[in-house]
Design a protein that fits this description.
single chain, 71 residues, alpha+beta, four-stranded antiparallel beta sheet, 1 helix, globular
């Protein structure tokens, strides 16, 4: 999408997606806190219909997530 740059990469033996969000996605502390909450929810999900979540960077301005790559 227009709010992030997406990369395909390797993490150990897994192919992953790295999604780095643009700083314009966060207009204030409330947006960043909302995103942090969503990251915590992603980390707790384990379902075969949901991509696996590997981690996140929440150090502004380097905000991004790492998920499983699905073809």
């Amino acid at each position: 999408g227009s709010g992030a740059t997406v990369y395909r990469a390797r993490l150990n033996s897994d192919v992953v997606v790295i999604k780095l969000f643009k700083t314009t996605m966060f207009s204030g502390e409330k947006d960043f806190q909302r995103f942090s909450h969503e990251v915590k929810l992603l980390a707790s999900l384990r379902h075969y219909n949901v991509v696996n979540f590997f981690g996140a960077c929440l150090i502004y301005p380097r905000v991004g997530i790492v998920t499983e790559y699905v073809e």
